[in-house]
């Protein structure tokens, strides 16, 4: 008598180890499936605190955790450090950069977004964005390199150009960067230099809309702008960047054009979907929105392919409210949990209702003791909002070791106004030469 072989477990492939992909993998840990998680990096990055790496408050390892460490107890899960470059929905295969093909029964794509320069990609090397550890380290280097160069020059105009920082984009990332640089220049390092007065540092926040933090209620935007101005940030709203050079940035407001001499320009103005969005559109016929995000069904699947799911920042989910869900970590987390549960239910012959996001509120920090919080039923700012922001971010850090390190580091910084990670790494060279080298390495 022939003994029938056991059926192969359901194969789930997850592309992307950010919040969405990682939460999906964690919630499939005890399911009767075989999970393969693919990511270009071997670690999960807690992006909401990336600006603190960029300004020297934290080190990259404080907000990063190896994916294998997080998923070590999931015996049904394999982690591959590779990049997805193609998709065949008919054969149900995913092609990786190193040539391997993965077969799947369910595919979860959570590859996120990258910087968007609105057709001005030549600005990329002049104004780095903040999405990766490498971005944060480069921004940190530019910030502290600027102070070092200002210390050496004697020409007042050149010195002031080195002490001028322009942040393009008044969303949460831009607000956080501007506030952190202002605290650094005005309160933390003034006693460390001899030839410059760092309190003369100019920090300009440029926003194309009529207020900072446009997604937030107007009253919180106003409070955020007031807090930034108290820190020494000049907020310029309803202004658009039209040109950048190694020496200056040009902004326009109506018919008024202003040239700002600045050696350091940072980009926080927009995002576009990862390359995977274009691959999905080409291979499946799924439409994209104008930023390249994939328009998904109410259960986060693709219209013609119910076994392919897109979650997180790459997903355009417009089935609740009058606008798509925002690209924030809580959305990605809940979507990852939902898709994992949906797959488990389908294997049991059951269905789930459409995905519904539970909005726990929005938070943005401006500086020490200053933040804004919108919980829906109540909105407030100041020290209490800052405390809520602190504990919320520590709560969502992945591993206990990271939470402990960040709590100790923040506590020490709060008491001493110190910055323990102010390292200028890499080769010592002229800024323009460094940017040129970055571009060559990127290509």
CATH architecture type of the largest domain: 3-Layer(bba) Sandwich
CATH class of the largest domain: Alpha Beta
- Quaternary assembly: single chain
As for the number of domains, it is 2
How does the overall form come out from the CA principal axes?
Answer: globular
Mean pLDDT: 90
| Gyration radius from CA atoms, angstroms | 23 Å
In the CATH scheme, what's the topology name of the largest domain? FAD/NAD(P)-binding domain
Low-confidence stretches: none
Widest beta sheet: strand line-up: 5-2-1-9-21-20
- Structural class of the secondary elements? alpha/beta
Task: Note the beta-strand portion.
Answer: 15-25%
The percentage helix is: 25-40%
Number of strands: 25
Largest sheet: 6 strands, mixed
Tally of individual helices: 12
Distance between the termini: 61 Å
Structural commentary:
The chain has twelve helices and 25 strands. The N and C termini lie far apart (61 Å). It folds into two domains: 141 residues, FAD/NAD(P)-binding domain (3-Layer(bba) Sandwich); 230 residues, FAD/NAD(P)-binding domain, CATH 3.50.50. The chain is α/β, with parallel strands linked by helices. The longest helix has 20 residues. The mean pLDDT is 90. Strand 14 and strand 15 form a beta hairpin. The strands form eight sheets. A six-stranded mixed sheet has the order 5-2-1-9-21-20, covered by helices on one side. It has a four-stranded parallel sheet with strand order 13-12-11-17. The protein has a three-stranded antiparallel sheet with strand order 6-7-8. Helix 1 packs parallel to helix 9 and helix 4 packs antiparallel against helix 5.
């Amino acid at each position: 008598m022939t003994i029938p072989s056991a059926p192969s477990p359901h194969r789930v492939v997850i592309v992307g180890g950010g919040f969405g992909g990682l939460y999906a993998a964690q919630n499939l840990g005890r399911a009767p499936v075989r999970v393969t998680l693919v990511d270009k990096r071997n670690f999960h990055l807690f992006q909401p605190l990336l600006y603190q790496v960029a300004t020297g408050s934290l080190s990259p390892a404080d907000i990063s955790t190896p994916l294998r460490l997080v998923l070590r107890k999931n015996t049904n899960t394999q982690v591959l450090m590779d990049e997805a470059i193609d998709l065949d929905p008919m054969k149900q295969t995913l092609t990786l950069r190193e040539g391997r093909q993965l077969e799947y029964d369910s595919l979860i794509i959570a590859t996120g977004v990258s910087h968007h320069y609105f057709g001005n990609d030549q600005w990329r090397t002049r104004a780095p964005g903040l999405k990766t550890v490498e971005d944060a380290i480069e921004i940190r280097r530019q910030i502290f390199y600027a102070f070092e160069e200002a210390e050496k020059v004697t020409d007042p105009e050149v010195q002031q150009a080195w002490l001028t920082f322009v942040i393009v984009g008044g969303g949460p990332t831009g607000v956080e960067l501007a506030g952190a640089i202002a605290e650094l220049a005005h309160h933390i390092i003034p006693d460390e230099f001899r030839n410059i007065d760092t309190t003369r540092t100019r920090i300009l926040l440029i926003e194309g809309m009529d207020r900072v933090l446009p997604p937030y209620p107007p009253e919180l935007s106003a409070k955020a702008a007031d807090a930034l101005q108290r820190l020494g940030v000049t907020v310029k709203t309803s202004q658009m960047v039209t040109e950048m050079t190694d020496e200056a940035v040009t902004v326009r407001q109506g018919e008024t054009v202003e040239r700002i001499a600045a050696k350091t320009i940072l980009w926080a103005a927009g995002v576009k979907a990862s390359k995977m969005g274009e691959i999905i559109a080409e291979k499946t016929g799924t439409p994209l929105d104008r930023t390249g995000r994939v328009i998904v069904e109410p259960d986060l699947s693709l219209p013609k392919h119910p076994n392919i799911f897109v979650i997180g920042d790459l997903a355009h989910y417009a089935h609740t409210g009058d606008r798509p869900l925002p690209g924030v970590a809580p959305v990605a987390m809940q979507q990852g949990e939902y898709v994992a549960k949906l797959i488990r239910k389908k294997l049991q012959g059951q269905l789930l209702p459409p995905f519904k996001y539970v909005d726990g509120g929005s938070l943005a920090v401006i500086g020490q003791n200053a933040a804004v919080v919108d919980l829906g039923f109540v909105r407030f700012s100041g020290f209490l909002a800052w405390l809520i922001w602190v504990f919320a971010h520590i709560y969502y850090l992945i591993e206990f070791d990271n939470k402990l390190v960040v709590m100790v580091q923040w506590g020490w910084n709060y008491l001493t106004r110190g910055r323990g990670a102010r390292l200028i790494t890499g080769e010592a060279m002229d800024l323009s030469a460094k940017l040129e080298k970055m571009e060559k390495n990127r290509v």
